Amino acid sequence: MPDTSSNVEFAQDLTAVDSSAPPPQAKWIGFVEAGVLAIVAVATAWSGYQASRWEGTSTTAYALYERYTVLAQAKSTLAGQDRLYDIVMFNGWVTAKTAGNGTLASYYERRFRPEYTVAFKAWMAMDPFHNPKAPPGPIFMRQYVSSNALSADRFEAIANTHFKTGVVARNRADDYVRVTVFLATVLFLTALSQRFEFIGPRIVIVAIAAVLLLFSMLGIFTLPRI
After folding, report:
1. Which residues, in sequence order, are CB contacts of 213 under 8 Å at separation 6+?
2. How far apart, in whole angstroms, are the C-alpha atoms of residue 213 and residue 207?
3. pLDDT at 17 over 70
4. Distance between CA 90 and CA 106 in Å, rounded?
5. Which member of 27, 36, 57, 76 has the lowest number of beta carbons within 10 Å of its beta carbon?
6. Quick count: other Cβ atoms within 10 Å of Cβ 187?
């Protein structure tokens, strides 16, 4: 008589479900987790790259700001020295002129700076010794121009432009660092979800991670790039 017990056991083995195999729901959530991790890896690398580029731009801009600030201060100092020189020479000329010493007055006139000479001639054309409406001196004339003062203003404007560029670049770098922090949070949540055996908590955690990932990707696509 054939051994029917062995056949029954064999049939039970064929129809038995392996309890150690993951449920069908766990497979698709695993694919989602893998996709999230892949996106996070690429997005984190890109965000870090952009943050470093913007940080470099900021550092360069601040360095240029300091350089042009020093140049502006140097030119401003020279402009102040030129103005002081013009005032001293004009006071000497006035003293000689009022004393009737034409030779000394001519000597001072020859020592005037070229820029000051233009203003001085325009001032003299107004007959300042008899015209009460004439300005007190050549430095109050619109013709009085200091090239060093103009250079100081120009360097200061360039310095301010570089400073603003540095501030904007630093803010952009901070924005990308902030995105990187969000991506790190997504990575943490995704890794945490894999520690749960029950499908419910995994879905909730992955959903939160997906929302943060969507927010991070929106930031990456909307932020300026260099």
Report:
1. 36, 39, 40, 43, 183, 186
2. 10
3. no
4. 11
5. 27
6. 18
CA 141: distance to chain centroid?
41
For the chain, the average pLDDT equals 86
Which residue is it, tokens 């129809």?
Answer: 15
Distance from C-alpha of 131 to C-alpha of 119, rounded to nearest angstrom: 17
Sign of CA dihedral 139, 140, 145, 148: positive
Cβ burial 85-123 (10 Å sphere, 16+ → b, else e): ebeebbeebeebbeeeeeeebeebbeebeebbbbbbeeb
| Residue 71 CB partners (closer than 8 Å, separation 6+) | 151, 155, 159
- Secondary structure of residue 107 in the 3-state scheme: helix
d(CA 95, CA 101): 9
What tokens were used for 19? Answer: 């309890």
Lowest mean pLDDT among 28-37, 77-86, 135-144, 166-175: 28-37
Question: 131: which 2 tokens?
Answer: 């015209």
Predicted confidence band of residue 36 (pLDDT cuts 50, 70, 90): confident
How far, in Å, CA of 82 to CA of 147, rounded? 10
The residue extents of the domains of the chain are: 24-222
Q: Which residue has the tokens 């991790």?
A: 37
Q: Write the DSSP symbol of residue 113.
A: -
